[in-house]
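Journal club prep — side note

Before the paper discussion, L.F. wants everyone to see what a predicted structure for a comparable chain looks like in token form. Sequence:
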Amino acid sequence: MFKTVFALCLILLASPYCRGSDQTSLEEALASGDMERWQAEAKRNAEQTVKPKSISQLRSELEEFENVYVPEKGIGPFPTLILLHGCSGPTPSHEKDWAKRLNQAGVAVIAPDSYAGRGHSWKDACDAKVMTPWERSGDIVATIESLKERAYADAEKVYIAGFSHGAITAWTFMQQLSEGRPPLSVQKYPETDYQSAIHGAFLFYGGCKGKWDVEIETVAFLGSDDNYIDERTCVEYAKTHPERAGSFEYTVYAGATHTFDHASPNPANVEAGSRYDARATEAAWQRMRSLILESEHE
């Protein structure tokens, strides 16, 4: 029950049921089987509380606090990956580990901090009080729009890697793009063809709730011993993934936990039962690397 409850809280982060309000609890909603109404109310709450912003405003909130990693070898512009941290915020060692791998493969990395420029605490984000995936997906749009002004970045060769809350944010973005609806934090989509620009999405220990049909190749990396995300949502989703969409595949690593790729997990990860799994991390990287190489040679 805990795994299911927490996964649903992550997926429907704006809901008052996940925030300890006086309304019906998530457990009661699950027990009553009235999840459709509960989900609709969660989305309605987000739509009523988030105010859209201009791309320039979003960029001003992000760029001062982002970390950028550019390959030392090779000649740019480089394919660029946007790395979306989990709800506990950026973990420098985790970010640098992935940037090192990607830079060696000739890929630049931009790691936005979705909290610092807005004065948000990671605890408020994990408690679903701020920065829900429906809002945070605007950070993807703003960062992609900024690539045109970055000499090192190829704005037509973009990848997204999301971890936990970041993975759900990326999934939500693909749903919004499928529906032609901008993120709640974005006034309107720019003219960019995101389906053409984004060559792949790599989603670590995130949920797979709701369909998308954009042409973005997507891979989910999951753990069988994850206390927070139920890998079965992705297993079931794969059976009905639209044929017209970009491919979707998943891997469930036996014995792997939430944040299994953190070699030096932060205190929040440790408390959550995180265990570093070097084999699962290397396997995930090799799959990422192969897809990036395939895409670059198309």
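L.F.'s comment for the group: The first helix runs from residue 2 to 11. Keep this in mind when we get to the figures.
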